[in-house]
Design brief:
The complex is a heterodimer of chains A (466) and B (427). Chain A has 466 residues and is an alpha/beta fold. Chain A contains 13 helices and 22 strands. Chain A has helices spanning 12-23, 39-44, 46-65, 80-104, 163-166, 183-194, 214-226, 320-334, 363-368, 384-388, 417-429, 434-438, 449-460; strands spanning 2-8, 28-32, 108-111, 113-116, 121-125, 131-141, 145-147, 160-161, 175-179, 198-202, 230-232, 236-241, 247-252, 258-263, 265-268, 272-274, 307-309, 348-350, 355-360, 373-379, 394-401, 407-414. In chain A, α7 (214-226) links the parallel β10 (198-202) and β11. The chains are: A alpha/beta (466), B alpha+beta (427).
Chain lengths: 466, 427
């Protein structure tokens, strides 16, 4: 039997594309080389890290802040086995949910590693070595990415680990060195720092989460330090030694002198590389860029007609929701529809606590493009709800066009920013002005009032509670 | 004080209707801002401000006036400051004077479609300018507005094209692939309230002219239609195989329209009467082909003409169609660009038409109607096979074209398209 669409990889990009295709009455196959569906996101990424982030934040609250609320806990006990077990259960429930969705949508799941053989043929080799072949009119490559490492420091999964191993450590380490203060480094660094690990993060650039708005990086940096994390910004790692009992990381400080950091583990969080190993790209006309990302045109079609690629494997923001949008985009186009992706309106979130979230242009990008803009900021400490919740650390920053008042970017650092950013995304998609948001009623008392106030500040510098 | 008079949209037009004011009375307008739209029997065009100032409207929308009438004035002495300012000045002192910001935002908001509205408009080949007035915040185009615009039947302009045809630069390929999922556009739906309501609307001059011409074609020609069907397999294969290379090489997409154009121009060489017209008691033969191709414009269909289509390459045809379609979309086509065709191709396929009889575009003597490509079982060498098929129809003026010629011509077009390599070999 021939499929209308074969999706290689069942991460959030792949499985969502498969479901959308099934909704559009296509006959769909999805191919996954790992035993469970869901890809990095569900198995070793977004979901398990959030499970541990939530658990560890509860622990921190109990340890540090319950007293402020008048709650005594006695001697606090951390059972890492249970915490980790809960995380595994969350993952298990989620991947089972995907298997159910595949079944419900009558999508054929093929277990095994896929290799493209030509325009329409795909070979699938199962874990048992058995090989089958399927054919499909269209193909979507959604194979995602793997943790990247440094040329002189290869991940060994024992001492020099990636996020995957860091999510499943046998015990809470005493010391942990993390290379890279991006989203993954800051999130997993937070998990272990909350649980009592001495966390040291080395970052080559001069700010944490360097791709986001600089104000956010600065605020998050302060917050991580308050958590007890040592941040080595502007430090260039030059050697990682895993031979001893402890891992030793040597980095050159901005001043030129070397610092040596030690940890029970060193987690490599320097980004992720596209995963196309043994995918058979040489059998088709799919080409990659020097960094290995699959090249696609504006329709996300590769150089080989009929073969598309989405998500991490084509580069851009490595975000599950970006991959999802791309999956739906490709499938709807195959069905003759004319969807569109607004890449400027794809939000970024860091699930530290407080959280960081942003969408649209950063202030640095606006400066660089010489765009005339105005800024409106509002601090959490002026927010009734935040004070009541003992969460007054945070700020919302709105960037709007100086002439038209159109919102160009919204950046938030503070409790619940991950959920609050949704309003800003809607505003961007509808090209709302700062005054539009300022004129929309926001429930009181809520955290979202901070966005309204920041918009008032951006409109005419007339925040009400400042 | 600048006086703005109603311009002539073309020769021999003495009356036009001011169909729409794009700015309000008392607005401060900037130079080059579009002020109003006029509609005549020949075309629709918009008039822009030649200078900045405050607008005073003298003729309300919907009025039919003589060319040269004074439509409005622009008070150039007035500065932007005397009316709601054109720029946002976030000074706290002015905060009470009711959002200066919103005045500006409203003007830009009217070009903004919501994400769902944007998708609907693009699938219907429409733009935000087809939505009369956005009903969302600040005049944004909502899903409701987009649905209305997408479902409003298009009015044939200039040439009374029989079935709506659209710019084919993109070709109907997407629809073919989409066969299982794609639904033809829905028809505009009027709410029946249960009361016996009758609504009367004045026909626009454009519509009146179209009506008059359609009837005249019926009365003054001996029109009939011949049909055939085309197996599109080979053509689709060629397109699939070379569309990327073609686009790389020529920076324009390879659609089906170029093949149809070439198949027609080649076939016309064998059947000169099909490319001829009657003038008085003479037959005028054209030893060149000026191909009229119906494309979509914001106000309806227009039929710009590809001059000397017979000597164009496929790439040149695609490029010229793309250029003309872009001008049509921006209302920039001149009367010259839309007159003088010797033959016309029209495509109802993009709207899902399976078969129809096109109506002549006088003084032309024939018109080809393309239709949708549909997978159908057909017999090939005694076997039932499934092929992508398209019905084609050619209406012709029997006064100068014989049945043998019209049928022979259409068969030839069919053979070229079923075996595109014959176009290359000219056999």
């Amino acid at each position: 039997m021939k499929y209308d669409l074969a999706v290689i990889g069942s991460g959030p990009g792949g499985y969502v594309a498969a479901i959308r295709a099934a909704q559009l009455k296509m006959k769909v196959a999805i191919i996954e080389r790992y035993p469970t569906l869901g890809g990095t996101c569900l198995n070793v990424g977004c979901i398990p890290s959030k499970a541990l982030l939530d658990s560890s934040e509860h622990y921190l609250q109990a340890a540090k802040h319950f007293g402020e609320h008048g709650i005594g806990t006695g001697a606090l006990k951390l059972d890492w086995e249970i915490m980790r077990g809960r995380k595994d259960k969350v993952v298990d429930d989620n991947v089972k949910g995907i298997a159910f969705l595949m079944k419900k949508n009558k999508i054929d799941v093929h277990a095994g590693h896929a290799t493209l053989l030509g325009s329409e043929a795909i070979r699938i080799v199962g874990a048992d070595g058995k090989s089958t072949e399927i054919t499909s009119t269209s193909v979507i490559i959604a194979t995602g990415s793997k943790p990247a490492d440094l040329p002189f420091a290869k991940i060994d999964k024992v001492k020099l680990i990636s996020s995957t191993e860091a999510l499943a450590l046998k015990s809470v380490p005493k010391e942990l060195v993390i290379i890279g203060a991006g989203v993954i480094g800051c999130e997993l660094g937070s998990v272990y720092a909350r649980l009592g690990t001495k966390v040291r993060i080395v970052e080559y650039l001069n700010s944490a989460i360097p791709t986001m708005d600089a104000t956010m990086g600065k605020e998050l940096g302060k917050s991580l330090k308050a958590l007890g994390i040592e941040l080595y910004l502007g430090h260039k790692v030059k050697a990682v030694d895993t031979k001893g009992k402890k891992v030793k990381v040597v980095a050159t400080a901005p001043g030129g002198e070397d610092v040596e950091l030690s940890g029970d583990y060193c987690m490599m969080a320097v980004g992720r590389r596209p995963y196309t190993d043994n995918l058979g790209l040489e059998n088709v006309k799919v080409s990659t860029d020097p960094r290995g990302f699959i090249k696609v045109n504006e329709h996300l079609e590769t150089a080989h007609p009929g073969i598309y690629a989405i998500g991490d494997v084509i580069g851009g923001a490595m975000l599950a929701h970006k991959a999802e949008e791309e999956g739906v985009f490709v499938v709807e186009r195959l069905a003759g529809q004319k969807p569109h992706i607004n890449y400027r309106a794809i939000p970024w979130v860091v699930y530290t606590w407080p959280e960081v979230a942003g969408v649209g242009y950063t202030e640095e990008e606006l400066k660089q493009s010489n765009r005339a803009y105005k800024v409106g900021s509002f601090p959490y400490r002026a927010l009734g709800r935040a004070r009541a919740a003992n969460e007054s650390e945070g700020v919302v920053k709105v960037l709007a066009d100086k002439d038209t008042d159109e919102i160009l970017g919204v950046h938030m650092f503070g409790a619940r920013a991950a959920d609050m950013i949704a309003e800003a995304v809607v505003a961007l998609e509808y090209r709302a002005s700062a005054e539009d948001i300022a004129r929309i009623s926001h429930a009181h008392p809520t955290f979202t009032e901070a966005l309204k106030e920041a918009c008032l500040a951006a409109t005419e510098n007339r925040a009400l509670h400042l | 004080m600048l006086e703005v008079k109603v311009p002539s949209p073309g020769e021999s037009v003495s009356e036009v209707t001011i169909s729409n004011w794009l700015r309000a009375d008392g607005d401060f307008v900037n130079m080059n801002d579009e002020l109003f739209e006029i509609e005549s029997e020949k075309a629709t065009l918009s008039v822009s401000a030649e200078s900045s100032g405050v607008l005073k409207i003298l003729i309300p929308a919907g009025t039919t006036v003589k060319v040269g009438a004074l439509a409005c004035t622009i008070d150039t002495a007035a500065s932007a400051g005397t009316v709601p300012p054109a720029k946002v000045e976030p000074s706290p002192a002015k905060a009470e004077q009711k959002g200066a910001a919103s005045a500006v935002v409203t003007a830009t908001a009217q070009k903004i479609a919501s994400p769902a509205a944007d998708k609907i408009l693009r699938e219907a080949g429409r733009s935000t300018s087809d939505v009369a007035k956005g009903s969302g915040k600040g005049g944004r185009v909502t899903k409701e507005g987009a649905l209305k615009a997408a479902n409003t039947p298009q009015v044939a302009a200039i040439a009374p094209a029989p079935v709506p045809a659209a710019a084919l630069a993109n070709g109907p390929v997407a629809q073919i692939k989409a066969a299982p999922a794609h639904m033809p556009p829905q028809v505009a739906k009027v709410a029946y309230t249960g009361e016996r309501i009758e609504r009367r609307e004045k026909m626009s001059p454009l519509r009146l002219k179209v009506a008059e011409r359609l009837v005249s074609v019926r009365q003054t020609t001996a029109m009939l239609t011949t049909f055939n069907e085309i197996d599109m397999s080979n053509l689709m294969q060629v397109r699939k195989e070379y569309k990327d290379k073609f686009e790389q090489q020529h920076s324009v997409r390879l659609g089906f329209m170029s093949f149809f154009t070439k198949a027609v121009t080649e076939s016309l060489k064998y059947f000169p009467a099909v490319n001829a017209s009657i003038e008085g008691d003479e037959v005028v033969y054209h030893d060149y082909v000026d191909m009229g191709i119906a494309v979509q414009a914001p106000k309806g269909l227009v039929v710009p003409v590809l001059r000397n289509a017979e000597s164009m390459t496929l790439a040149q045809v695609e490029m010229e169609i793309e250029r003309l379609a872009a001008r049509a979309r921006n209302n920039q086509l001149t009367i010259d660009e839309m007159t003088g065709g010797t033959y016309t191709i029209s495509n109802g396929g993009v709207f899902g038409s399976l078969m129809s009889t096109p109506i002549l575009n006088p003084p032309q003597s024939a018109i080809l109607g393309m239709h949708k490509i549909e997978e159908r079982p057909i017999a090939v060498n005694g076997q039932v096979v499934i092929r992508p098929m398209m019905y084609v129809a050619m209406s012709y003026d029997h006064r100068i074209i014989d049945g043998r010629e019209s049928v022979g011509f259409l068969v030839r077009v069919k053979e070229y398209l079923e075996n595109p390599v014959r176009l290359l070999l000219q056999v």
